[in-house]
Each structure stands twice: as structure tokens, then as C-alpha cells.
Amino acid sequence: MSTKIFGLYGDDDILMDAVKSLQKKGVKINEVYTPFPVHGLDKALGLKKTRISDLAFIYGAYGLILMSIVTWYMMIYDWPQDIGGKPSFTWGENVTAFAVPMFEMTVFFAAHFMCITYLLRSGLYPGAPTKNPDPRTTDDKFLVEIVSDDVDRLKEMFIDTGAEEVTVKRA
Question: Which residues in 31-59 are b (16+ Cβ under 10 Å) and which e?
């Protein structure tokens, strides 16, 4: 029977010291809930680098390619214009005129698809079930979650590392 033990902390520096101390003692931390990003916490927990920056490049490239096709289609294929007696024969001759819209679509696609990807991946989309065990972590508290059966030892470890409150939830 697995049990969730939660340690509530009031300061991010105390949290970092507690995480490092728990890691040194061989305790596997399941999750940490914080009201803002804590620098160095990902390394202290041993989390791998995410691939979301790779997706940003792919989304941006998709926007650039799509806008290149749209500008070619509109200005060269569908409705070519003769401006000042100079016809537009190829897209390559006019690419500098399209630089700004192509850049804007690159940024637009990267930014919007990154937001959608983040919300879906983290489960924060509208209507998603809440995963946060303590609503105070959205304001000013930090929560460490550990899943274990050794409740008494972990309660003592949380208190030793400066936890303001220790909660046990049996599954």
C-alpha cells in the first residue's frame, strides 16, 4: 500500500536545501509543487532536458514554409502583378519584399504552438482534472511529494529539513 507524504515549505532556499538533503539520503522525490520557477530545482531533482525547444524550431520552420508557399501562390501563381513595367517572374526575385511577413509567421507559429504544446503536455488545458494537492502552492508555499511506506522516517526527515507542515495521505 503506497502512501503519499507531503512536506510544506515557506521559502525556496529552504526547499532547495531540503531537496538536496533528501536526495543525499536516498529518498526518491515524486513531485515538487512551487508557485514560481525555482532556479536549479530541475538539476537538484535530476530531471532531463526537455525537447520543447526542438518543437519550437519545428513549429517555426512550419510557419516559415507555409508563409513562403502562401506568398509564392498569391504573388507569383494566382495573381502576378506588373509593377512599373517589371513583371514578377519568380518568387526568388521578390523574396526580400516578403521577409517581414515570413518572419512574423515564423514567430506566430512557434509561439502559439508552443503554448498549446505546453498546456497539453502539462495537463493545464481547460477542463483538465487538478493535480495540485495543496492550493497554497499557487500563492506562497512549496510542497514536496514523496510516495513511500516508511511514513515515520520521512515525517522526521521533513521536520529536520525545515518543513512547516507534514501531511500524510494514504492511497
Answer: ebbbeeebeebeebeeeeeeeeeebbeeb
